Amino acid sequence: MPRKKPLMISALVVTTLIVAAYLVLLSLDFNRYKPRIVQAVKASSGFDVAIHGDIEIGFGLDLRVVIHDIDIRNVPWGSRPEMVRMRRCEVNLALLRLIRGVLEIDQVFFIEPDFLLETNPSGESNFRIAPSKEPSPPSQASRSTDLVFLPVREVQVEKGRFTYRDGRTGETLTQDVNHLVVSASDWRSPIHLELQGSLNDRPVRVEGTFGSPAELMDSGRSWPLDLKARLDGSIASVRGTISDLPKLRGFFLITEAEGPSLSEALSLAGLTTPFEPGPFRFDALINDSEAGLMLNDIRLRVGVPESQGIEISGTIADLLSLKGVNLECQAQFRDLSKLAGPLKTSLPVKGPVALSGRIADSAPKILRFAPLHLSFGKQTFTGSAQIDTTGKLPRLNVKLASSELDLGKVLASVDEDS
Question: Which letter, b or e, does each residue of 383-399 get, where b requires 16 or more Cβ atoms within 10 Å of its Cβ?
Answer without folding.
Answer: bebbebeeeeeeeeeee
